[in-house]
Structures are given as structure tokens and as C-alpha cells.
Amino acid sequence: MPSRWLLLYNCQAQGLGHCLNLMCDEVEVEQFDATGVARAREQIAESLPGYDRVLVAPQLLDDHALGLDWAALGDRVRRLPTLYFSGYHPDTCYIDAGDRPLRGPAGEYHSLVAYSSFLAGHSEDQAVARFNEQTFSRLHYFLQWDASWKRMIATFSRNGLDLAPLRTKWSRGGPFMYTVNHPRIECLRDLGRLVLEREGHKARYLDSLPADNLANGAVLPVFPPIATRLGSSGSRMYKRPGQYRYLSLEQYVAESFDRYRSASAHAIRPDFAPMLERASQATLEAA
After folding, report:
1. What confidence score (pLDDT) does residue 287 get?
2. Maximum CA pair distance of the chain?
3. CATH top-level class for 3-83+148-161+185-205?
4. What angle do CA 219, 179, 185 make, to 5 degrees?
5. Which label site among 3, 23, 234, 273 has the fewest CB atoms less than 10 Å from its CB?
6. Which residues 6+ apart lie within 8 Å of 218 measured at CB?
7. What integer pLDDT is reported at residue 102 of this predicted model?
């Protein structure tokens, strides 16, 4: 009888859960993303004792508001970090309107250059013109590839998972991330294999992949000055979340500015405040 696993994760839950089920007959995984955890909290609390292994993203494990009794599970609980990589998309930031994420043309993903331009009173054309090599250099975007890899490898290493050998594999060809936190399904399969090995199981079936559900979300561009340094082709096109439609950088900036003007109040999340300050300073230096 398969070992019963519960995966409480972020937006990567569906892809990773399906990969685990597909690769190994010895486990049976049920998964919830963060929204699902909040909605099914009582159901999850009741069923927790029945699982042989509970894999939990750190942000959920540390969320005391969920009221889940992790201590009662002892060593059946395993911390499992989520994949977050900004090397391709260092311009990403998050903005809140009150206590809710502010959604723009790319969903919850906003551009630091566009937002700092809006706050500086730039026109849309001026904002678009700032998406260039000089701006990216001032904002240290070209340093993010190595820095992001080091952070990600260190985070997973602390949890018994070695991503270092995957760096070359994932970096071949096109970008392995759609956004900073939406990896391609191949990456989730590789992570799933490492998880299985950590828990004493073997990934036996590697010839097929489940549907890549995150491909239906937003896809952020890898701007040409960044892509050139990574040996790949660049783009200035954004894919809309939930649609098979693209919009140009000009359209993206125009719609973002409309959203910022129409929102009653908005502010960048505290984690990104230093980046916004740097972007604002870069605006002054370029003036």
C-alpha cells in the first residue's frame, strides 16, 4: 500500500504533487496550494494524523494563524522550500492596495522600473525608455543570476536537498522560470526526484510529465540586455495570466499606469522597498 503524503505548498503544489505521483508507485500524494490550505484548514487539521509524511512550505509551516498542530506529527513533518529565482526577471516586485495584492496586466507581478517611473511622475513613453542596459546596470540586475542561484542552492541545502547539480541542466536552452516563482514543469520533476530520494524512495518513471499548469499563468519577459548576458534570446513581451495572449512592453506600461491611477492607495511590499529606493535614485541620476 502506498505511503500517504500531504503536500502543503504554494502555486507550485499541483505540478509537484502530480510529478511525485507520476514518478513513484510507493507514494500517494494529495496537494493543496496556499489558497487551498486556507479554505480547507479544518479538513486538513482533521486528516493530518492519517498521513505518513507531510511536506510543508516554510511560509505555511510558520503561519500560526492556520492553527495546525505540527508538533503532534513529530518527524513526519518535512520543510520543503519553494523554488524562487529572480535571475531572469530581476525587475519583478509586488505591490499592495490596502491589505490585498494589487493586480495589474501581469497579475500580481509588477515592474520595478515601471512603478518607480510612475511615482516619479514620468510619462508612459519615458517609462518605456528606461527599460535599457544603463537602467538595468544601475539597478544591479545583471548581478542577480549568480546571487539568486546561490540563495536558492543554500536554502534547499539547509533542508537536505542539493540543487547544485541541476544548475547546468536547468540553465541550458531557454529560461527555466516563467516568473520568479513559477518554474517549468521539468524543474518540478527534478525537485520531486530529490524529495523522493531524501525520503528514501526512488523516482522510477521519468519518461513523461504531467500538464504544466503554470504555463497558463503570466509569463514575464527576459529583457534583451539580460538575455544577451545569459546566452539566450530576449523579449519585451508579457503573457497575460489565464489567457493565451501577449502584450507589448508599451501596452504593459500603459495598463500598469492606468491601474496605479485608479487604485485608491498602493504601496510596494516592504521586502522590495530597498529596490524601489535604488530605482528612484537611478531615476535622479539619469535625469
Report:
1. 56
2. 67
3. alpha beta
4. 85
5. 273
6. 106, 107, 109, 178, 179, 182, 238, 239, 240, 241
7. 97
Dihedral pair phi/psi, residue 183, rounded to 5°: -80, 160
AA identity, residue 121? G
Classify residue 28 as left (phi > 0), alpha (psi -120 to 50) or beta: beta
* Grid coordinates of 173: 536552452
What SS3 state is found at 279? helix
| Under 8 Å between Cβ of 2 and 20 | no
pLDDT tens-digit profile of 110-158?
999 999 999 999 999 999 999 999 999 999 999 999 999 999 999 999 9
pLDDT tens digits, residue range 219-266?
A: 999 999 999 999 888 999 999 999 999 999 999 999 999 999 999 899
Give the integer Cα–Cα distance in Å for 236 and 95: 21
pLDDT (0 to 100) of residue 132: 96
pLDDT of 65: 67
Q: Residue 128: what are its φ and ψ, rounded to 5°?
A: -60, -40
Give me 80's grid cell.
520543503
Quick one: how far is CA 91 from the chain centroid? Answer: 13
Give CA–CA dist 246/244, Å, rounded: 7
